[in-house]
Amino acid sequence: MNEFDVVVIGSGSAACAAGLRAAIGGLKVLVIEKSDRLGGTSAMSGAGIWIPANHIAAAAGIADSKQEALAYLHAVQPPKQKETDSGRWAAFVEAAPDMLQFLAKNTPLDFQLVAEPDPFTEAPGGKMFGRMVTPRALSRRLLGRFAKTLRRSTLPHSFTYKEAVDLDIYHHPVKAGLKVWNKLLYRWLTNAGGQGTALMVGLIKGCLDVGIEFRLETRAVRLIQDAESRVTGVEVEHDGKKSQIDAARGVIIASGGFEWNKEMLDQHFPGPIDRIGSPSSNEGDGQMLARLADAALLCMDQANIYPCLPTRYERRPSGLPMTFQAEPHSIVVNRHAKRFVSESDFNIGEALDARDDNGITVNLPAFLVGDHRFLDAALPFRWYAAYDRGWVKKASTVSELAGKLGLPPHALEETIARWNAQCATGRDTDFRRGENSWEEYKAHGAPNRLKPIDKPPYVGMSLNRSILGTKGGASTNERGQVLREDGSVIAGLYAAGLAMANPFGTRAVGAGTTLGPNMTWGYIAANTILKQNQ
């Protein structure tokens, strides 16, 4: 009952990709999940997946190569990461296309291309199309008795990610629904969903079909090591009782981030945080387990950061990732009432989290400010804003709004005056808002997203960091093996996803550079296990 070849901690996309690869390779696999829901943060996601040089693009006649993908990564990632993560980038680029083909062959997942460009399209190796894929909808009924345990999302998973993107459901929810009403009805009747629901239905179904065992409400509390410090199993707690599970070939930590661990979050992300958009079970268990096993923890100040609307999940305040900060008649300013980034920048989260040499944030608290026309840009904004009734401030003058937000009034007046002058010329000379391919794409065909802020009442709200998942954890090599501080390998221990020191940190190189790399690292770790002791 408690003897396996591989034990995987966590049940998200990285965990299931790892477990599936190990099981297809002939190993006996157990996946443990500490909550009563399967799927982790991946089940809540939009399921955009960034995989360069993938087989779906190749079949569609889209030119791409691993060499171009690697050139792109080197061109756009921060210098510090170039120094430390080039080897892991190369390993990702080499394995990612194989991983996607493996999933397509061994699960019910049916991937399709999404017409989203790389955020840094103009950089060497950047592509306008072909690297973003997403699954078509799948029914939860495929999971049998596990169907009810699949984690739900704050996102509308009745739509697929491709539909959400193509139909722009944030700005046109009713129109979008009418265009695909027959599909939505069918999915309702068949208990089907797109996005993270489809992704995790397909992955879990693939795992079940090859005999992987899932145990819910089973928390890993300690890694078991032999006299040579090799990890040989996991001590778990279930229903108040502790037991030992043997893992003859290895343990893979894929338990997600630590954003719901207040002590860890305060330590590594000091300063204001607006919302968290992940399951509250992401408490850093994997990071703490790895540290107790003498692993080095790195990249603990990295995270998937993106603006979130307020909502509720698991009966508590939560965040819904949405690009509301790029609407016309609004700008984003820092605590000095100055703009510091293009509001349409895909990596606005990186700018929000910018820190000085002492680790102190330089722009927070930050705010979105605009006039009343901002509120009319999208109906969903008003709906979700109602979850936090004190969030949106209104005022009859810019000076009065500054007072309500705690900003210097004269500086805010100057910033808005400068913005309005740039709107008159049609060009943002400070941050070139709307000028690159990504920002043109996100404008959904609007000829000019630069609109003045000059019609009272004026509105403002906090726009601090919202975290969808931290990206720090166990240090790993290009084979997914966990390392000590001195760089030596902890035998039998592997990490993947947001529980590892992720080589794709806060800066995202594509809308799917959380899920794509996460699943790839799970796949890489399992491949390494399969090659050991052969």
TrEMBL record:
UniProt keyword Chaperone present: no
Gene3D superfamilies: FAD/NAD(P)-binding domain (3.50.50.60), Succinate dehydrogenase/fumarate reductase flavoprotein, catalytic domain (3.90.700.10)
Cofactor(s) needed: FAD
Source organism, top-level taxon: Bacteria
Residue stretches making up the FAD-dependent oxidoreductase 2 FAD-binding domain: 5-515
InterPro entries given in the database record: FAD-dep_OxRdtase_2_FAD-bd (IPR003953), FAD-oxidoreductase_2 (IPR050315), FAD/NAD-bd_sf (IPR036188), Succ_DH/fumarate_Rdtase_cat_sf (IPR027477)
UniProt xrefs under PANTHER family: 3-OXOSTEROID 1-DEHYDROGENASE, FUMARATE REDUCTASE
Identification of the protein by name: FAD-dependent oxidoreductase
Organism ancestry: Bacteria, Pseudomonadati, Pseudomonadota, Alphaproteobacteria, Hyphomicrobiales
